[in-house]
Amino acid sequence: MPLRHFSVTDSCESIVAELRNNGVAVIDRLIDDAVLDALGGEIQPHIDAEPVGGGAFFGGAMKRVKEVAARAPSAADIFCHPVLTTLADAILLENCKSYRVQILIVLDVCHGGQLQPLHRDIGVYEPYLNHEPGAKEILLSWIVALTDFTEDNGATRVVPGSQRWTRERVATDRDIAIAAMRRGSALVFLGSVLHGAGVNTTARPRTGVVSGYAVGWLRQEENQYLSCPPDAAMRLSKQAQQLLGYRAHTPILGHSGERDHDWLLGPPKPNTEGEGYEEQSLQ
Ligand SMILES: O=C(O)CCC(=O)C(=O)O
Ligand SMILES: [Fe+2]
Asked: Does pLDDT of 262 surpass 90?
């Protein structure tokens, strides 16, 4: 089953249509070399310091670097990228007022190891939130390749259309597509789509930024207030701060003190007491 590849000159509408239809799309060469080089320089020492491991869910031969927004400020150029946020606007804003970065890690698939089990990223909310096939999406996941992704080096395996499957249905080899893509490309998929990392049989690691956005009323998978605390977040743009979570979802969901609910690290905005409550049915 082939995956549809788009170029940066294709319209976001056509990519959104593919996401709604097949649940997954690849955007070739989305991220500039300058950003990839800067991010590589910031993150490589952390990759080098990380042990290979990861347990059964991660196939046993992965390095996972966390706290990426604080350690590698260039990552903000990716999670603020206008194409990624335009796709998230289309997919998620019908189910929330704003969305946040769900998780931001760099994942190195190293030689050896096993297939990562196929999974849905929305699985982190089960059994407390059961997302039925066809329900409005709560997550839009993406993986940006920092090295080329090939079938041999552990490119992500993904199951187009699986957002509509019943939870019991098991993918066969014929259902699975390999997200082979060049460095700088982005694999974008609905949080309800089955996927997992492949096995790396080559000598060199396969490196990717694994991330996504979640509707702003859900708890983030990675606690960005600790992974990228205010001191580190202050070095990033206002948009990056808001996407990391320094923004309340509505004036009341996630508010703090006298802070501006829309930009929690911005200048204080007093006299907003009670704002927003009248719009919510809290009885
Ligand atoms: O890196 C990959 O190819 C997939 C990783 C993944 O799906 C995850 O960690 O949730
Ligand atoms: Fe995943």
From this structure: yes
**Residue 20 Cα to ligand 1 middle (Å):** 21
d(CA 129, CA 109): 30
pLDDT class of 165 with cuts at 50, 70, 90: very high
Q: pTM of the full predicted structure?
A: 0.96
Ligand nearest to the CA of 191: 2
CA max distance for the chain: 60
Give me the pLDDT at residue 208, please. Answer: 98
Please name the residue whose Cα sits nearest to atom 4 of ligand 1. Answer: 197
Average pLDDT over residues 119-124: 97
Q: How far apart are CA 273 and CA 267, in angstroms?
A: 16
State which fold the 5-247 domain adopts. Jelly Rolls (2.60.120)
Q: Is the CB of 156 under 6 A from ligand 1?
A: yes
Q: Domain map of the chain by residue range?
A: 5-247
